[in-house]
Amino acid sequence: MHNNENGIKRPENSENRLYSPQVKICGLTHVDEAATCAALGADAIGFIFYPQSPRVVTAGQAKAISKALPSFVSRVGVFVDETFDTIMPVVRTAGLTAVQLHGRESPRLVEKISAQGLKVIKVLFSHREPFFTQAAHFPAAAYLVECGVGPLPGGNARAWDFSLLRDFGKDFPIVLAGGLSIHNVMEAIIQSRPDAVDISSGVEYFPGKKDIAKVRKFIKATQKVRMKKQNRRIFYVNN
Fold first, then answer.
1. What pLDDT is attached to residue 226?
2. Coil, strand or helix: which one is 35?
3. Listed residue (114, 60, 117) closest to 89, CA to CA
4. Which of 48, 114, 149, 180 could form an SS bridge with 55, CB 3.0 to 4.6 Å?
């Protein structure tokens, strides 16, 4: 293995191999559900630290969930327009391995958190700033892209034109999000060719409560898509 300039782990001579995108299940609020998602094959579990979200958790809750996860599963904290001094204590308490900045954070904050040895995933949007075409301004390890339409900072379950990312993903490691479901994830992957996919409300029966049957189907559907592309593994944990 070796890392590229964005800090993404990539197997040697991976250009001609077939691969499936990694899977991040976001908005977990319960230990048993998170552990089950990991057992089903999720590469990353996401915790929401945005107070207005119906899926918000405390650092203590995230810590309890993190302890129940296998060591190789990434623990991603989602923050919206928070400061470095607010984010880092949560990182330490919750045992996070990555930080997802989901607002209008500055390139300087991305750089500052990255310098702490954390993987930083910066959100970019297709319909509002920061646009995914501005990726080069942010020195992140990867970029989560969604439409940016709706009342909350997340995807708001809004599907969009996933094919907009096809060329973007040739140059930048991307996590596809926003409006994904068990019904459209395969086509979305074929259209956008992402390195990973991220889902929250699409596998829920209530905000913060995952429908495990849907999680299983979503992961299986993702794994069915095999593409020839450089395998940039966004979610991994250094042991």
1. 93
2. helix
3. 60
4. 48
**In this structure, what DSSP letter does residue 131 have?**
B
**198: three-class secondary structure by DSSP:** strand
Listed as own residue / partner, the contacts of 227-231 with beta carbons closer than 8 Å and 24 or more positions apart are: 227/18, 227/19, 227/20, 227/189, 227/190, 227/193, 228/15, 228/16, 228/17, 228/18, 229/19, 229/193, 230/10, 230/14, 230/15, 231/10, 231/11, 231/14, 231/17, 231/19, 231/195
Q: Per residue in 85-142, pLDDT tens?
A: 999 999 999 999 999 999 999 999 999 999 999 999 999 988 778 888 899 999 999 9
Is residue 184 left, alpha or beta, with left meaning phi > 0 and alpha meaning psi from -120 to 50?
alpha
What CA–CA distance (Å, rounded) separates 69 from 56?
Answer: 19
Q: How many CB atoms lie within 10 A of CB 229?
A: 18
Taking the C-alpha atoms of residue 46 and residue 142, their distance in angstroms, rounded to an integer, is 15
What domains can be seen in the chain, in order of their start residue?
2-9+22-228 (3.20.20.70)
Predicted model pTM: 0.88
pLDDT digits (tens, 9 = 90+) for 1-48: 445 445 555 444 455 688 999 999 999 999 999 999 999 999 999 999
What type of residue is 204?
A: E
Radius of gyration of the chain (CA): 16
The β-bridge partners of 199 are: 25
Tell me the pLDDT tens digit for each residue of 41-60: 999 999 999 999 999 999 99
173 contact partners, CB below 8 Å, separation of at least 6: 6, 8, 141, 142, 143, 195, 232, 234
